[in-house]
Amino acid sequence: MVNVSCFQSGSIVDGLESKNKFDAIRELLNRAELCSSQDTLREIEQAVIARERIYTTGIGHGVAIAHGKTPGLDEVVVLLGISRSGINFDAVDGKPVHLLFLIAHPPEKCDDYMTVLSTIARIMHNGAFNDALCTELNTQMVGRLIAKEFSASLEGRLNN
Length: 160
Known about the structure:
6-stranded mixed beta sheet; Mannitol-specific EII, Chain A; single chain
């Protein structure tokens, strides 16, 4: 069973203002209420930025899925940052990122991490869903929409 904290209260930040990927990662981590209690905040930041320096996690269609292994975490943690103006993420399609997912995971939870990563990638290939997330002004509604889609996709994957 996947033990993951996805899209719970405090995990979604609307109105990211940073224009480049490294600043956006830092801003998301610092503004996400879920991370305010994380003792490993600096380690998460370092791990995610180190991974991003290897190759962009901007998968295209306005989406990036930044990620990194972080010892000290008990479970996979997922954050979502929304940028109305877009972030230069060196995405594979050259377009700005509007939906920045951040996944941090303990090294021993690689299977859970891969399940979460592939589930997010799968649901984010739906252009209409991406547009709905970007245009929704209420972060609670965004949280409900994406949690519902994530759960349905994850359940479908685990039942196959």
